[in-house]
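Quick entry between incubations.
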Amino acid sequence: MRIVILGSGNVAFHLAQAFSENKIGVSQIFGRNGKALKEISEHCNIPYSTDEMMDADLYIIAVKDDVTAEISRKIIKEDCLVAHTSGSLPKEILEGNYRKASFYPLQTFSKSKKLNYAEIPFFVEAENQEDQEVLKNLASQVSENVMDSDYEKRKYIHLTAVFACNFVNHLFARAKEISDGQQIPFSYFLPLIDETVQKIHEIDPKSAQTGPAVRNDERVLQLHEDLITSKEHLKIYKTVNDSIKKMYEL
Amino acid sequence: MRIVILGSGNVAFHLAQAFSENKIGVSQIFGRNGKALKEISEHCNIPYSTDEMMDADLYIIAVKDDVTAEISRKIIKEDCLVAHTSGSLPKEILEGNYRKASFYPLQTFSKSKKLNYAEIPFFVEAENQEDQEVLKNLASQVSENVMDSDYEKRKYIHLTAVFACNFVNHLFARAKEISDGQQIPFSYFLPLIDETVQKIHEIDPKSAQTGPAVRNDERVLQLHEDLITSKEHLKIYKTVNDSIKKMYEL
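Done. Structure below.
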């Protein structure tokens, strides 16, 4: 199977690297950013081009959501499979007379970070059983967790990830504002954070909850509210504590 | 120095274990719950009692905030040092004619989990320089991160921990409600969560932010809001996204 990856961002980079590490041949990486393509090309030993797209059986579009449709129109071939990598787009966003699919790796990608691709879940959707099998087979060569998932399911996966990853990171950023304000190194909180995450590898997060809200400690809740000077911190503080109290029916 | 630990909960257990692992002698653990005390006693090879408190130079009160004052009254000796382990109490909560202190380990403790005590930060406060040194020296035998910290600072440390640990765990619990609703194993999200946390060991969480809010992706934000059926989820979703937009001035 001849594969072309379209895009030169973090997802394209990691897909190219994951395929290359698992001896899956990629014919070409194609895109607009010659400099970024060249980097991936040299790193993964895959040809690249900014103007001539190679003929392939599978095109994987790994670009930002808002340019996925535009890029998909560049594929004029009809007898081929085209998959995008977005968690929040239907496969019908792809505009062409080819067979459409989604090939969604659930991970947060930064270019420089080494990743263990084997543990990254892939969610796959295609128009027919055969294409579905092709994509699942491909994903299985990289990852141990491959799952069928239509657009509806994918939306919920993405939403879960927003809570468990994007929002969690934002809480870290807000927490760091508080500790920075007191000249306490944020690194002091990393063992606590690591332990918090380690715990949910073993027990249900609902059972792992600690802190003033879940023990209904009004004194500490009030003490914290008095301490907080930022309007944004206070809004988060109250909203999350309310949500904790609701969850445990306090 | 003769040390007595008061309490039989998770903090008492881990302090006893940390001291015992580092060959710091503890004369006794004292409390009301004989069964729990007996367990710690056998595990750490430290005598225990529910009715007769031993004479000591340092008493460490590791009990819940709301019973700390009550327990502190049980120490009638005057020429001794008494420290509580709470992040959200002043040392003046201790009621006795002894010298008062705070000895606060920053970690979330569950009884069964093995912990690397060397990386747990200890925050220490006493009435005078000599006691301060005694407690810092004690903490340093357990941990590599020991810091002076008065009540004011301790409150902020605790508040930071609530954001970075308690709130983060609650987001995991809420996220799991979403994935459970779609029969997607929550374990699929663990590599993503691990990576999110791994990232902030290396880069500032503010620079690590990803997701629809930080890229001002109104389509996905709207799509998610339409998807969410729980009032609590929606309140968190809107509050945190607003906070992200404010942080990046979007």
